[in-house]
Specification:
This protein is mostly helical. It has one domain. Helix content is 69%, strand content 0%. The chain has five helices and no strands. The longest helix is centred in the last third of the chain and has 27 residues. The radius of gyration is 16 Å and the shape is elongated.
């Protein structure tokens, strides 16, 4: 979950961009951090696709995609923000799935008869 906060140290969503649109930017920005935090959860509970190196990036991309559409619609943000948020989501998904694979030796969290 701590990986989700790394983009905030580098750049992350800027609340002021949303304040200009007359919405509470600090609340809107939390959406990105919650989505990034959920990447690890979804990687952990899913078992499709089976290979961790496909599942991690795919889930990271899918979880971040709806919010990146908001980035695309935000004046002063657009495609660069969309692109970099998808990159961070995909990277976080890859790292989470890779660390899980390294620590457990399994490609997913499901225990099968062959694991017992």
């Amino acid at each position: 979950m701590s990986l989700a906060w790394i983009p905030s140290f580098l750049h992350g969503p800027i609340a002021a961009k949303f304040d200009l649109l007359y919405i509470n930017g600090s609340i809107a920005v939390w959406g990105w951090y919650v989505a990034r935090s959920l990447i690890g959860f979804f990687v952990g509970i899913s078992h499709w696709p089976r290979p961790w190196f496909v599942r991690g990036p795919l889930i990271g991309f899918i979880v971040m995609f709806p919010l990146t559409c908001v980035s695309l619609a935000t004046p002063g943000c657009g495609f660069p923000c969309m692109f970099w948020n998808l990159v961070t989501g995909t990277t976080i998904g890859t790292v989470v799935a890779g660390v899980a694979w390294l620590t457990t030796g399994r490609s997913n969290g499901c225990v099968t008869a062959t694991d017992a």
